[in-house]
Amino acid sequence: MAFLKWMASRDAVDQQQGLPRAQWYAHLDGDSWDYVAISPVLTDAQQKKEDDATRAKGLAIGPKASIEFREFIASHTDTMTAGPMTVSEMLDHVNGP
To answer: E strand or H helix at 67, and its extent?
Structure first.
């Protein structure tokens, strides 16, 4: 619950600032994870807006926020992806120019 509340406080900042928000998924069966968030890549201007608003709410940003985040979890990985794409676009991406 503490983790979800910590994340909700950050989601509220994005919502209040009109910034794109992460999409959350709750794990129901199988692997060892509980939640996954798919977050949009922000522009530099959006990231600054988010950081300024988060800091104004008294919440940590940057490395301090990363440390706080890790206090709630047993393991963490980051995944970079390309997409969304159609299958045809994916074939073009794989085959290259």
So the answer is: helix 62-70
